[in-house]
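Reading a protein record of the kind used here takes only a little practice. These numbers are not coordinates but entries in a learned vocabulary of local backbone shapes. Here is one such record, which you should read through line by line.
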Amino acid sequence: MKVSRRFQLAVHTILFIAANSDEKNLTCEYISKEIKCNPVVIKNILNILYKNNFLIKPSPTSGIKLKKSAKDITLWDIYKITDEIDIKDIFSDDNLQITNPIVADLSELLTTDFEQIIQFMKETLSKVSIETLLTKHSQKDKISN
């Protein structure tokens, strides 16, 4: 299974903001430079995060900040705003002209299984907070030094 680039960048951006929360000058340009990503792409990610109440817009005296605590933001929260899957859309393709009865019923055959998979994914991602990831990263740094 593969997650989208948008999800990866959203997680990376939130982690960066959380790790640098004491930084007064966190701007889109600064973040994009530090994580080596196109500023337009980061701006789009930031807009998604603003729209979904993850961030506080910067003022003239402060940079970008998390609106919620790092412990209150989970990977599932981020996944929902970047990649959430609609079961009905997984097998829909208006251009397919399927005549084989087994293949034609594929959506119906797999819907329950995919619902269970997505539920498991939700439960698992909901247990992983940004704070958890920052702690893991900090522990990894201690071990490698």
The CA atoms of residues 52 and 81 lie 7 Å apart. The radius of gyration is 19 Å.
